[in-house]
């Protein structure tokens, strides 16, 4: 009789443990997906290497003046290359905050890369605020594999503002 009671207790413990484990497996939250460019809504279709934008801060234009791939820099690139981009930002309305940290790049596979100063050249894109009629130029860079890139610009609140394609 005692052995039957022990077997029943062990069986009950196994059933409870299985139910708890199964419930925990179902309640694990899914990983947060990587940001996508689909949230970006430019106000005008891209014209060559520039695009108009409107954000919660104001309106302006992002222009790619030049880009190049380099294999050297202050430190060797981890990915094998740096993408160096010279940009010009201009403001038409409101106050547009800018900083190289407000830029990210997506490669063709959708992998996200943050900007780095290691592969950039002078003049680096500074930190500041543009008022209507003002513009600023500077370089930003990304340590990433060579290929087609989508450059994403955010604002001071890290809200996506606009995106522009850079062909390799």
Automatic annotation (TrEMBL):
It comes from the Bacteria. Residues 93-152 form the DUF4352 domain. The keyword Signal applies. Pfam families: DUF4352 (PF11611). The keyword Signal applies. Residues 27-52 are annotated as: Disordered. This is DUF4352 domain-containing protein. It comes from Microlunatus panaciterrae.
């Amino acid at each position: 009789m005692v052995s039957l009671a022990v077997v029943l207790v062990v069986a009950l413990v196994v059933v409870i443990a299985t139910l708890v484990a199964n419930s925990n497996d179902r309640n694990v939250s899914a990983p947060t997906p990587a940001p996508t460019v689909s949230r970006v809504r430019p106000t005008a279709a891209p014209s060559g290497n520039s695009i108009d934008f409107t954000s919660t801060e104001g309106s302006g234009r992002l222009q790619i003046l030049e880009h190049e791939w380099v294999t050297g820099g202050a430190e060797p690139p981890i990915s094998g290359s740096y993408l160096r981009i010279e940009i010009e930002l201009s403001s038409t309305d409101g106050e547009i905050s800018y900083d190289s940290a407000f830029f990210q790049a997506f490669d063709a596979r959708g992998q996200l890369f943050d900007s780095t100063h290691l592969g950039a050249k002078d003049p680096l894109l500074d930190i500041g605020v543009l008022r209507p009629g003002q513009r600023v130029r500077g370089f930003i860079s990304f340590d990433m594999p060579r290929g087609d890139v989508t450059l994403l610009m955010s604002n001071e609140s890290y809200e996506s503002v606009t995106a522009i394609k850079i062909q390799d």
